[in-house]
Each structure stands twice: as structure tokens, then as C-alpha cells.
Design goal:
With 258 residues, the chain is α+β, with helices and mostly antiparallel strands. It has helices spanning 34-48, 70-85, 89-92, 103-111, 113-132, 147-158, 191-199, 221-226; strands at residues 9-13, 20-24, 137-141, 163-167, 174-180, 238-243, 246-251, 254-256. Helix content is 35%, strand content 16%. The longest helix has 20 residues, at 113-132. It comes from Holothuria leucospilota (Black long sea cucumber).
Length: 258
């Protein structure tokens, strides 16, 4: 009997069930563990002449799974927190994808990274404190800030499910954030993280240089140094001399020629 790969579409999931992907089964011909069991079951069915199908569910013990990511960790943490606080899991589950922060918030994060990071920490600590507390709500008072910074707190607090209110008069006006246990949440990505990702997107891996490549006069000293992949990379002083067809690199007394 000839066996071939199973081409049926199956759904793979991660261990927590958050991620899923439809792939081709591909179980079969080269599976030395599974094939003998399937053959025996198939032979038994034929011998009994019942014409019934063969159930191989118990044989598929080695179930392939996807690897959980950071979002899975956030969901699992929120799920455990929801169980401890008797909350609905959906209330703590982050929305898919990065939060849609406004351009105003992004611009403020670019201009005032340290201040924005401090505000994010204040809101995050507020949410976590009320979720860990026996009280139904908690508040946090931010220091006095200018109008743009106060506006930023008002808009950013919405992504944490918090209510905000301004108090006092200029120039001592400040914002107080209120977090309710049944409403507050943590965004799956902070404003700072989103801005950082947009500013420094992932780039493809550089193509490595070869040792025997021709080093011409158009090369810079940095290019020539990179063409010697076996030279230890260190912050110490590097003396690099480049000539046509010959390169010499000395570092910490070590000298090599390509």
C-alpha cells in the first residue's frame, strides 16, 4: 500500500489559543512513528470487512503548536487577574493590533519622551493598583502642567480606560485620573513603544562581506574593516591600513592580513 502526505487543511494554535494559523497537515509518508499504527488500523478495518472508516484521533498525539508571543503573555496575565478579581475576561483582553494613538499624542511623545514615559508609568501603576486593591476605584494626581501636557493626559488616559478631570487655576492647574476596577485596562502597546517602533523600523540583515573581495581605493576604512569578519570587534583603538589588494588591521597587538 502506498502512503502519501496528508494534504488536508488543519488549524494550528498556540498553547493559550490566542494565535491560530491554517496549514497543510503534511503527516504521512515519512512519519515512522505514525504510519505503522495507521497501517495496522487500516488493515484491521479491511479484515473486518465492516467498511467503516478508521479513527486515528488517538494516534495524532504529537500535535503541532504555534509559539506564543508577547501578546499571549499579556492576555494570560489579564486572564489570571480577571479570575482573581471575578471580572469578565473580555474586559481585560487587549484589542488586536497596536492602539490607534492620535497624531497629537505621537508628536507629544516625540518631543517629550521622558515626560510621556513618566505619565505612562503613572497611568499603568494606577490601573494595576486598583486591580490589585479591594477598592472599586483609585485616583492619581499628576503634577501641574501646561495646557498641551494636560490635553495629552486626557487623551492618553482613554486608552487606559480612566476618567480625567482638571482642577485648580492657571498656572497651578493639574489633572487627576480616576481608574475604576470594572473599566480600566492596560493597552497592549504603550504610546512610547508605538512611536519608537515607527521611528526605528526593523531593517533586513546586512549582507556579509567576503574576505577575498577586492579592496579598492573607493573603500572607506570602515568598509575595509567590515570586510574582515574574523577580526574581533572591540571598542579599543583600531589601526586600519588599506591598500589596493592588501589590507592590514591591528587591534590590541593583533595583526592579520586577508
Amino acid at each position: 500500500m502506498v502512503w502519501s502526505y496528508c494534504k488536508a487543511k488543519v488549524e494550528m494554535k498556540c498553547s493559550c489559543g490566542n494565535l491560530s494559523e491554517t496549514v497543510m497537515c503534511m503527516s504521512g509518508a515519512n512519519d515512522s512513528t505514525l504510519n505503522p499504527a495507521i497501517q495496522r488500523a487500516s488493515s484491521a478495518a479491511v479484515a473486518s470487512k465492516t467498511g467503516e472508516g478508521v479513527d486515528i484521533t488517538e494516534m495524532m498525539g504529537r500535535r503541532r503548536v504555534l509559539e506564543c508571543n508577547e501578546k499571549c503573555a499579556v492576555i494570560e496575565r489579564n486572564r489570571r487577574l480577571a479570575e482573581a478579581l471575578n471580572l469578565k475576561d473580555a474586559e481585560l483582553r487587549p484589542e488586536a493590533g497596536a492602539p490607534q494613538y492620535t497624531e497629537f499624542l505621537k508628536e507629544m511623545a516625540r518631543k517629550n519622551p521622558s515626560s510621556v514615559s513618566s505619565i505612562e508609568k503613572g497611568l499603568s501603576n494606577l490601573v494595576q493598583s486598583v486591580q490589585d486593591s479591594k477598592f472599586s476605584s483609585r485616583s492619581h494626581s499628576f503634577p501641574c502642567m501646561n495646557r498641551d501636557m494636560r490635553r495629552m493626559i486626557h487623551e492618553l488616559a482613554e486608552f487606559y480606560g480612566c476618567q480625567t478631570q482638571s482642577y485648580d487655576q492657571e498656572p497651578n492647574k493639574n489633572v487627576v485620573a480616576l481608574a475604576r476596577k470594572d473599566k480600566c485596562r492596560l493597552p497592549n502597546m504603550t504610546l512610547s513603544s508605538v512611536v519608537q517602533r515607527e521611528r526605528f523600523p526593523k531593517v533586513p540583515m546586512p549582507i556579509p562581506h567576503h574576505r577575498n573581495m577586492d579592496i579598492s581605493s573607493s573603500y572607506t576604512t570602515h568598509d575595509a574593516y567590515l570586510s574582515l569578519p574574523f577580526i574581533p570587534r572591540s571598542p579599543c583603538l583600531i589601526l586600519l591600513f588599506v591598500r589596493k589588494g592588501l589590507g592590514c588591521c591591528a587591534t590590541s597587538g593583533l595583526c592579520t592580513t586577508p
